Amino acid sequence: WGQASGGQVLPIDEVAACAGTLGYELMCALAQRVPVLVQP
Fold this sequence. Notes:
By secondary structure, the chain is an all-alpha fold. It has 2 helices and no strands. It has helices spanning 12-19, 23-28.
């Protein structure tokens, strides 16, 4: 769900697991002011 400082892609489910939640909940919690870039 982004990139680490070394350029490695961070999947949203890994970030969510570290935060003790689900990827879906992270996406739902984004405010409109946060830019979202979707790459295929």
